[in-house]
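Support request, priority: normal
Reporter: lab tech (M.K.)
Component: structure prediction queue

Hi team, I submitted a job for YkgJ family cysteine cluster protein from Parahaliea aestuarii yesterday, and the status page still shows it as pending. I've pasted the exact input below so you can check whether something in the sequence is tripping the parser. The sequence length should be 85 residues. Please let me know if I need to resubmit or if it's stuck on your end.
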Amino acid sequence: MDCRSGCGACCIAPSITRPYYGMPQGKPAGVRCIHLDEAMACRLFNDPRRPAVCAAFRAEPEVCGESREQALQILDALEILSRPG
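Reply from support: The job had stalled in the queue. We restarted it manually and it finished. Here are the results:
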């Protein structure tokens, strides 16, 4: 599956706990990454400064659902389920 144009859910819903370029404190869940542009595309997509967790992400129907809204809901639920403790 290719990423859905104009989605950006994977750049909003999940947290990134490690510091990365432009976000030295990482990114809390539900917060838009500063590298997400107006078209909801990653400005760091082919940049080596892109976080490893982002580079490893693969769009899959089970995660991305049928719409941007559904992707946000699924990724938010996965974020909650994956919290330690």
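Residues 9-81 form one domain. The chain has a mean pLDDT of 95. Let us know if anything else looks off. Ticket resolved.
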